[in-house]
Amino acid sequence: MSPDFDTAVKLHIYRTIAETTKAPSAAEVAQSLGVDVPEVEAAFGRLHGRRLLVPEPADPSHIRMAPPFSGIATPFPVVVQGRRYFANCVWDAFGIPAALHADAVIPASDGFDGEPIMLAVKDQRPVPQPCVIHFAVPAAHWWDDIVYT
Amino acid sequence: MLLFRSEETVDRWCEAHQTPRRPLVRLEQLWQLAVIWYENRLTAESRRPAPQDMVGIFASLGLEGPFWDPMADRWQTTRA
Fold this sequence. Notes:
- The structure holds 2 protein chains of 2 kinds.
- Chain A is an alpha+beta fold.
- Chain A folds into 2 domains: 3-66, Orthogonal Bundle (Arc Repressor Mutant, subunit A); 77-126, no CATH class.
- Chain A is 34% helix and 26% strand.
- In chain A, the strands form 3 sheets. In chain A, strands 1-2-3 form a 3-stranded antiparallel beta sheet. In chain A, strands 6-7-8 form a 3-stranded antiparallel beta sheet, covered by helices on one side.
- In chain A, strand 6 (104-109) and strand 7 form a beta hairpin.
- In chain A, helix 1 (3-20) packs across helix 3 and helix 2 (26-33) packs across helix 3.
- The two termini of chain A are 31 Å apart.
- Chain B has one domain (7-68).
- Chain B has 3 helices and 2 strands, in the order E-H-E-H-H.
- The longest helix of chain B has 12 residues, at 27-38.
- The chains are: A alpha+beta, B mainly alpha.
- At the A-B interface, helix 1, helix 4, strand 7, strand 8 and strand 9 of A face strand 1, helix 1, strand 2 and helix 2 of B.
């Protein structure tokens, strides 16, 4: 399959999430692009190899991550123009307003005790907040277990 | 990676999880990483930075040293 097909699949996924907040299934992508489901599932696999997509481990016809977006609910909600997205981590929580080029409110919490920390992005800058981000996993191992990372 | 309101809660988390304390990143640095990684993600040309690019990106934000070196990573280098 050509790289153009993979790009079409990738764009359809990302634009669908941007518009609806929901990740499309392989069947939905196939229907929209007028192709067979196995072709889309194969594209999911190739996009995973390029680290642009993480299919659900137990069901590769569904999307777990299309970074910065999550295909499932997570502790990292991101509200943009009234739409509630989910990010995969705090980095990706900033990634959503960066990708959408929009302001955002991010109701986050302290990783130790869960105390709320309200993050925000305004005019493509983070609103200052007294907090830090701790990276527990070295860069060389981020994709060993990307869900944990 | 996890968000903490202070270095104190980072230390408490590390102690609770018997994990060594690793580098801390400031909010502004994280935002810059998010922009570099994702600002073009909804375009056909978007791609994830390659390992050789990542070293320079991290260094430009003051994130240097082996912890930030992804070169041992095993992945395909073809463009997305």
